[in-house]
Prior knowledge:
The chain is α+β, with helices and mostly antiparallel strands and 196 residues long. It has helices at 31-34, 43-62, 74-78, 82-93, 106-120, 160-167, 179-195; strands at 3-12, 17-28, 68-72, 99-103, 129-133, 138-143, 151-156. The strands form three sheets. Strands 5-6-7 form a three-stranded antiparallel sheet, covered by helices on one side. The chain has a two-stranded antiparallel sheet with strand order 1-2.
Amino acid sequence: SGSTKVMVAKVDVCRGLVGEKIWESSVPVAYQESLAKASSFDDVLVAEGRAEFLSLVKEAKSKGGERAGGVATQAFREAQNGKVVLAEFERAANLILPTRLKVVSQDEELKLGYRAGVLASGGSVVNAVVWDIGGGSQQMAAKNPAKPELMLTFKGDLASTRFMQSFLKGGSESPNPVGADGLQDGLMRARKEARS
Length: 196
């Protein structure tokens, strides 16, 4: 929810496996941060996000990308115009490369994050715990040792951007320096979130 990421890779669609990674990149776009001020993405942010996204799609095509698929997470779920904006990004990207984009639920985001984390660690799921924290949400997942077909999960909306914004005072753009009082406050907030 705070960046646009891309990866070009050889993918075994039948088995759902990512093979050789050819190229990857990430560009910051303050989607989640913008929602602290409004309930929709404004035109300036949409134009910035569209330009960054299309630039990444063009680069992906130049690196050998043949098709594109992508997901949008918390900020696009939350923004009143999130689905409309994503549909516009998809239409524009399809002029460059066949593209499908989707706003995913937090449950879908959890499953995708878990799968990506397991693949990134070499595929071992025996003791894997995957923590996916973004700008607007976080998910944790692990296999249930008692029932391997089930997952142990945690989903929350306190993530990096929201957590940082909870520290901001008086129009400041950064919670730093945190100091001893701020550290204790941060620990208290984190513990409270973990209990809920």
